[in-house]
Structure formats: C-alpha cells, structure tokens
Amino acid sequence: MRALRAEIDLQAIRHNYALAKAQLPGGRAVAVIKANAYGHGATRVAEALGQEADAFGVACIEEAIELRQSGVVKPIWLLEGFFHNDELVLIDELRLSTAIHSDYQIEAFKRHSFKKPVDVWLKMDSGMHRLGFAPEVYASAFAQLQGSPGIAQLGKMTHFACADEPARGYTERQWQRFDEVCSALPGPVSASNSPATLYWPMAHGDWLRPGLMLYGISPFAPGHELGDQLKPAMRMVSEIIAVRELPAGEPVGYGGRFRTSGEVTRVGVVAMGYGDGYPRQALDGTPVIVDGVKTRLIGRVSMDMLMVDLTPVPQAGIYSEVVLWGEDSLRVEEVSGFCDAIPYELVTRLTGRAPLVYKNA
Ligand SMILES: *Cc1c(COP(=O)(O)O)cnc(C)c1O
After folding, report:
1. Which of 14, 75, 182, 221 is found 20 to 30 A from 308 (Cα to Cα)?
2. CA-based angle 116:119:124, to the nearest 5?
3. What is the reported pTM?
4. Distance from Cα 219 to the centre of ligand 1, integer Å
5. What is the residue-averaged pLDDT of the chain?
6. Is 17 one of the annotated active-site residues of the chain?
C-alpha cells in the first residue's frame, strides 16, 4: 500500500480554535471550514469542534448541505450569501445564516417568504473591493433589510484585504470606513479573519471569523507571539520507495533540472507528486524531512513521485519516513515559500488521492 497520507490532528484544531476565541473574551467565533476545511475534511473538523464552535462558515450552499447532512446542528454562515434565488428555500429549511452583499440579493431575500426567520450579515466593501456595499450606500441597504419578516438578526460584516501586512496601514483605513457607518447602526459586528483575529483587536467586534489559523497555519512570519502558539493540524507523510547513488554531473528527474555535484549524491524517491497536490512549482532546495533530518527536494516534481537528497541522511533507505510538511520544524508556511504559493494553497489543493487519517478525535 502507498504510504502517503495526511495525518489530521483534531486536538490541534480544537487548540487553535480556543486560541482564536481567547482573543475575544465573551465574544464568539465562526470556525471557517469552507473548501473542505482547507483540505482537512469539513465534516470531521465540524464534528471535532461540535461542542466548542459557536458557528461554522462555508463558501456555498453545497458545503452547508453537506454539513447539515452529516449532523451539524450549530449555526452555519454562507460567507458569500446565496448565488441564485432557489437557494432561499434551502436557507430557510436548513436554518442557514446568510451574508448579503449585493442589491440582487436584497431583492430576492425580501421577495421570499420564510417559514422561520434567519440571521443575515450585511456586508460592507470597506476597501477590499470584492464583495459588499460601498460605505456611502451601506446605511440605505441596511434600512431596506431592517425589519424584514425573514430576518431574525441583522448583523454587519466586512473583510480585510491586508490584515496580514500591518505595516501597510490599510486595515486601519478599512476599519475606520466600516466603523464610521456601522457604529450608528444596531446589531452585531463581524470583521476579523485569522490575521485580524491575531493582530487587530480594534476590529474584533462580536464575531471572529478565523479560518487559516484553525489549521495551525500562521498568517505571520515566525516570531509573532500568537502565531507561534498555533499547532499544525496537518502532517503530510510518505516514505522512500527507491534509492540510488549518482556521481557528479548527473541530471535528476524530468528535464534534468537538477544536476548532481560532489562525489556521490544519494537520491531518494518519495511517493508523493503533483497528482496528490504537492506543488509542481517547488524549487530545488524545498525542505523535506527524512527520518527526522531536514534535507531538500531535488529535481522537478513528477505526478506520483518526487526526489530528495539523502546525502545528509546516510542512515535513510527504503521505507524511511518522509514528512513533506506539518512539523514544528517544517511548517507548511516554510514549504510554500519555495513553491510560489501561499500556505492556503498547499492544503486546499490536495487532490484527494492521499487519504486523510484522523487522530485525537
Ligand atoms: C475565508 C474567509 C474567512 C477566513 O479567512 P482566513 O484568512 O482563512 O482566516 C473569513 N471571512 C470570510 C468572508 C472568508 O471568506
């Protein structure tokens, strides 16, 4: 059997969720588990957080349906709202909370007759310019919805474009625009994704919306006090399936991108490739751990395999354990830096070929 697997530590996810909530004593936090919980398995993550989580956040109704069908009873937020009017029947039936970011959604929402009112989060575009009402028209959009029979609670939300880059000053400007309009309107506030949860208390409002950090991935470089307390939840593990020794000057892998130097290079072949989700963009030198020793990727990543330099790990051989990411000494944040990618991508673009193996349920 192929050894490749993603070990998911559900206790780490509970720890990370608790760390998010600790940033807002008395407040609440939506556990964002869209995109199959960033590759970690949405239904299992929801189950693991079933006691603790105040609510779950997803990107679309399909993801919400999957959670309800798996038995999730906590509130579920549609972070982008509904795309088509027929979803309103399901929002009503499944008791989903929905964002509203555009006029077409206000019109459809008001036309629908709900059996039971639902929570609505009216989104402001405070500067990201992706979804939401401009600050100038936000209060009038709010007024159109306020008092609608379909609404149980009307909240105010926005999303930051650069919360992970504090030096830019843009988060302060976004918050100012949001707060200026919203402080005059009733209802709860939700504005903070992971970086804002960890860095911007001014923007915490009533409901945090942590995603990335739940999986133990920090939006900040090492050295950030809270970021460093996150526990990686996914350990991507495989093993060596072949070994060879090459003299200097030999090419390794497709296109011969890497060439050996030095007297002898021991090359290990690892059962993981881009067909599993390992980024093909990974450069020579991308760190990997073999038998506990940090070494490097060499040569282009293939569909099912990749090659590593075993020279610094002379004891390693067939069946030696290889960790691709997910240890304190090899975080996915570090790996993504060698792959022209962000850590969000590495975990979300797993193809499903590597099984997810859960521990600490
Ligand atoms: C994905 C998402 C989040 C979570 O963002 P992270 O950076 O992963 O914490 C929060 N809010 C909204 C609206 C989102 O779409």
Report:
1. 221
2. 145
3. 0.97
4. 12
5. 98
6. no
